[in-house]
Design goal:
The chain contains 13 helices and 9 strands. It has 374 residues and is of the alpha/beta class. The strands form 3 sheets. Strands 2-1-3-8-9 form a 5-stranded parallel sheet, with helices on both faces. A two-stranded antiparallel ribbon has the order 4-5. A two-stranded antiparallel ribbon has the order 6-7.
Length: 374
């Protein structure tokens, strides 16, 4: 009988010592998975799946797919959804005056976002001969404001047209819908502008242009696929992970992970135009923005109107000013830069919601009147 090998004995002892560790590790993994599943189910039972009001509800539900958010909003009663369904659609301006009340007044048509509206609303208090036609959308980027201006050219008799440009939303020139680049967005659509091979400004118009068309498309698979395909092909912020409705919508943990990934994706796309040193002057975004303000000035004068561009530098320093001032000066387009009045590095110029204070709005409005020679 052969004597027991010491090497065999050592191997057997090692195997027996490893087995309890593997069992313990497997037990930890199984308990962890069980806890996560239980936690996921508990969150689903305690937090409504369509609520984004704030706190824990926002944390666990803001990672819902954009398609799921939109479909829930379209199916909800008025006022129940955090998404803004009925605001900002290009062409829906029936409540705005189309002409001044008499020959002694001047109609000013303003296009932009809340920043430009707040400044424009100060104008009549500084010059009682001014009346307003205010057109825009919540958080409207420059492509929305310019498309609104173009759509509105033949609808009014304004003497002055104002285009508002907001620094923080300028990178959204690469989008066609806020659904792709914000967590609780407005739903309205707008064109994607680009510069063609002949250095001409062109636009891809949205296949859905009204809230009624959006509601109809939600029940028409072919129309909905055309909408999604256009975002995929022309919206620089579109991501199927963020947009398309899938099984991740039913898991609170998966929604949190999707939100984190979505924020990373948004920052990466935004970085094409805006980095630590401000706007990349060679980027597509800045080149398109310059083409837009040039075309705005040219067409306004072609229509016999006075153009005015207001630059709202709400990010840091004079980033927007440096990006667009050379073009505005080269083409002699009147403009006002908020940086010269209220540097964004001064926190006292902002309200808690990051709008400028009424005093600053009034100062910018006064500068606008001066730029217009009034």
């Amino acid at each position: 009988m052969n004597p027991h090998s010491s090497s065999t004995s050592s191997s057997s002892d090692t195997d027996r010592s490893i087995q309890p560790h593997w069992r313990e590790a497997a037990r930890v993994v199984l308990w962890t998975v069980a806890f996560l599943v239980l936690f996921d189910v508990a969150i689903g039972l305690t937090i409504p799946g369509n609520s984004l009001r704030g706190g824990a509800e926002f944390l666990f539900n803001s990672g819902l797919s954009n398609e799921r958010k939109l479909r829930q909003a379209l199916a909800s009663e008025e006022g129940e959804s955090p998404l803004l369904l009925d605001y900002g659609w290009i062409g829906d301006w029936h409540d705005q005056p189309s002409a001044a009340s008499d020959n002694s007044h001047t109609l000013v048509a303003s296009y932009g976002m809340s920043f430009s509206h707040r400044v424009s609303q100060q104008l009549p208090s500084l010059d009682d001969g001014i009346e307003l036609r205010l057109i825009g959308g919540p958080g409207a980027p420059l492509n929305h404001a310019f498309a609104s201006y173009l759509e509105d050219r033949d609808r009014h008799n304004a003497d002055v047209v104002v285009l508002g440009v907001l620094a923080s939303s300028l990178p959204m020139l690469r989008s066609m819908n806020q659904l792709t680049c914000t967590e609780i967005p407005a739903v309205y659509t707008y064109p994607r502008f680009f510069i063609d091979d002949k250095e001409q400004l062109q636009a891809v118009k949205p296949v859905i242009a009204t809230v009624e068309e959006m509601r109809s498309a939600a029940h028409d698979p072919e129309a909905w696929q055309r909408f999604v395909a256009q975002l995929r092909d022309h919206d620089g912020y579109y991501s199927p992970v963020n947009f398309r409705q899938d099984a991740m919508d039913h898991s609170a943990i998966a929604r949190v992970l999707r939100r984190a990934w979505g924020q990373r994706h948004y920052r990466q796309v935004r970085a094409e135009a805006y980095g630590r040193d401000g706007f990349d002057l060679a980027s597509e975004t800045v080149q398109v923005a310059r083409a837009i303000v040039r075309e705005f000035g040219r067409t306004a004068r072609e229509d016999g109107r006075t153009p005015l561009v207001i630059l709202f530098d709400n990010t840091s320093l004079d980033n927007l000013d440096r990006a667009l001032r050379p073009t505005l000066e080269e083409h002699a387009i009147p403009f006002v830069s908020s940086h010269e009045i209220a540097p964004s590095t001064d926190p006292t110029v902002f309200l808690p919601d990051r709008h400028f204070t009424p005093e600053i709005d009034r100062k910018i409005a006064a500068a606008a009147l001066q730029a217009l020679g009034r």
